[in-house]
Design goal:
The chain contains five helices and three strands. Helix 3 packs across helix 4. It starts with 6 loop residues before the first helix and ends with a helix.
Amino acid sequence: MTLFSDSAELGRVFHALDDPSRRAILEKLSEGPISISSLAEPLHITLAAVVQHVNVLEESGLVQTEKVGRVRTCRMEPAGLAVVEKWISERRSMWERRFDRLGELLAEDEE
């Protein structure tokens, strides 16, 4: 088994996804770009808390923000999930190979 080469990046993404409010923000952003103040309304948390959550999401690479005048708009960055997809894919491949090998061994025993 090899160590995952992007472990720090993977850790940041899993940390960002760990919080229910951040997952709710990502769900909302999956519908399209939205201002931070609009994100705060359905979450029933303070604007300051939303800004902190957005900062964590931005640091993890899952969100990009842009400030125009007084409005800070957020958009989801789907490419930020690539590190998680890669990690899951590697684990899935490993287990599929193990199950294939187990199936071969069981088939040998039946013969």
